[in-house]
Amino acid sequence: MPTAPHPQSTDELYQALQENDRRPYGRTRTVTAEELVDAAEVFAEPVPLIHALFELQEAYTYGSEPRKSPVVFARLLTLFDEQPDVFDERLRHMLFWRFKWVANALRALPEVPLASLRQWLTEMRDRYEKAGLGLQPYYGQACQLAAHVGEDTTLAYELWAGRTRTRLSDCEACEICERALYHLAAGDDERALRAWEPVLGGKESCQEEPARSVSYALLPLLRTGRPDRARELHLAGYRACRRNPSMSGEVGRHLEFCALTGNEARGLELLAENRSLFDEVDSPLALFDFLTGVEVLLQRVEFLGHGELPAVGFSGRTWTVAGLRAEVRGRADDLAAHFDTRNGTTAHTDRRRTRLDRAPLLDALELTLRTRGLDDVAPATPAAAPAARTEAAVPEALPELIVRARTLDAQGHPDAQACWARLRTLVTARDYVHPDDPAVGPLVRLRADLLADEASRTDDDEYAVAAALHEEAAGLYEDAGEPGDAAVARACVLLAEAEIAAEGAEEPEAKAAAFTTAHEAMVRLHEATPGLAPHQEARLLRMRATALGLRLQTSRSEEHIAPVFAEVDLLLAFATRHDVAGQISGALLLRASTHAMTGDLPAAVTEVDALLDRLKAHGPAWHLTRTLGLRGRLQLGLGDARAAHADLAEGLRLAADWPADAVDTVRLHSDLAEACMHLGHPDEALRHLTRSAELELRRDNRTDAFCAYSNAARLTLDLGRVEDCIALLDSLLAEPDVAAGEVDDRLVAQLRLTRARALHAGEDLKAATTEFVALAAESADWDDDPGSHAMIAAETAVLLGESGEFGRAREAADQALAAHARSPRYEQLSNCLRELARLQAQQQGPEGLPDALAFLADAGKVADEARAAEYEARGRSLDTALAYEYGRVNAYVGEYEDALAALEKALALLGEPGAEEDHAGEWAECVRLAAAVEGIYLERPAPALTRLDTAVPRLTALGHTEAAEPLISLAARLRDEE
Questions:
Q1: Where does residue 787 rank: exposed (0-12), middle (13-18), buried (19+ CB within 10 A)?
Q2: Distance of alpha carbon 161 from alpha carbon 625, whole angstroms
């Protein structure tokens, strides 16, 4: 089926060829190129057909279809032989260049005899000599053939490397890679890396480089003690080759790198991302390279005992690691045998064996911010959090175990969890026999205990589930003749139902009323339940106080403060009288939290200080972590980040003494990240953010985990770690539930938005623009959030402007303005419109001035709206920034008098510089540009120098020496030119 209408003229054909050239390599581009060749033949003109054939050969070459590339080139060569005059200089150059493409294609096909390969090189040499072209490209291909076969490599290398480059030589980057690979094959890692440095350092590049060189350099970098450099290049290099059939060998080497650095889980993740390569790679040589890298990874995973893990592989069936490894091994062995048979050597088998026999080079190299092990990708259940302590001793005898669980639970001791977990396993077994022991009670009571424990471990927002479990437990407790436990369970139901009612209410009064009702019901329940044990009564008092605390938190009403303190005092007095240590601590924590809610942070700190002293002296020790966490948060509120960091870090240290589920380490890590940011330690903050996200994932709190990772990604981008940011987000966006659309679409959009910004920061303008355009289209339907659409559309417009697509940029800017009218984003829109004006004037000169001025006119309207709304910009004043941009835009297009007038207006709006550095910098830039326009372009150096000589002393007197430096340099230049 045709992918597009056939061109009706040669002009339409050329336009279609240009459009296809912008597509990524792959089946769509290849099929379109085939259709365009058919269309070109209809016109019976050689030149359009030649262009179409060149496009088709390129699609085959970079779409990893080497069998078809030589066929197309044969047609081109026939056309050249028959009608050489229709090949202009550019087409002639392309023709002779692509002799190398055919040599590469034939080399990749083991069914092509070695004699035919050498015959093609002879054809290439004869054609080059006849055309008067230098033979260095021919010797380059001969060298690559020798390396492929594994014979006479030194002589072939010397014949090539010593020759002078020609216009048809491979680019510098590709030739550097060939030199480095020669040294690498000789076992000289250091010399290979020295040869590679111009490519790895970014000085030389092309379509395939540096991605190709990076993939080969990873292991030499590890062997020579440069793991950080290897990590950096892996992140950037992998992104450049992933899912690309023509770079499947490079993908395979990245998989191998993961396997040899303790990153097997990441290797499986990358393999899943490249699942299409198993079926799309038509080049036997590239497939051999890819499959060998895949096998290195799978072999390592299976060696570590995870052969049963699911893996992606060839289509048509499901695979485990072990099953796929066997399949890959068979196919890769066959390919190696075919190549070696064709070449008459054992080179490919030997190279394959060397890769498979290589031992890991590092036990663990942290490649990404999202560190994962193979246990984290186990198929059945989420991986359990690693044990932070020795597991609590659980009694073997069943009666003793039941009594121990209840005793610990009454104390609120974290080790109760291990006892309940063991009991849950025993009770659910088919052969369970309940002990006939009065101290244990009937089975129905134990089942109620287990339900109550399960309810206590539900997530914070699973109120309906918790209420149902507690309700069922209460009924069983009543059946068991345990009214005290039943009352506690029913109080838990009341609190959970109040949370549900508050969530469903819109007005604060209605939310508060839900907790008032719950408290009143608890009081009645408490009064109607005689014979309560001290720990049961203390729990009821604690829940009464909690209900009133939640009411205060919801209403923030002053009239609700005193009742909370009154209930807390009741709890504290009762717990003290009966020596219920856990509830004494709980009461003091509630009192401190209430002070914090009312804004009295110093009083809250005083309460917490006293509590910490008590806990250290009398316990319970497991409350220390929570209390230190609270004091850390209070210190953050008081602006003492250093004290906060000390408390939170100590809390985190003590948390290791208790079961992971008993301590909110996620909150500790999150608060520590905030403290680190206040202290100016962003790298440490990033570690805590990623750790909190990882813990959320382990608890299967995926939304919270993605939110934490989103914050980590934005911080990573702010730190300039672009590739780390992209790698983290790529990993998250590849999660099955994200890909299946099961995660909140706005959260996923935020992840994609951060990734698009990172791509832009990493100078991948094409990929960034594509993502922004898609996000702008999706966010246009966010009727409940037009402000976000305005922001996204504005950023999209700027990227389209950077790409020179000003028509589409105008459309995106209009979308942003329409959304801004519903939910103003004054600063973002002003910045966008001014930047579009600058880009259009800079790229198009006078021709683009009308449209640039239209952008500025819109920016002026936005500034007027902001002024009318009394909006204060967080950055530059919108009016002064607009005046400056009028000056810059007019300067770009040669309207220097208008530019100078606009800059004078900007200076008048700015006023004189003061102590504020940002204001002084903006003022100095306006002075600099005004002086440049006046002195250089209007050729009036005298007033320009007067302007500069007046400004420099003002700035230096205020201490703004850095801002004055460009003005001093410009003044020196103007004096030199006088």
A1: middle
A2: 67
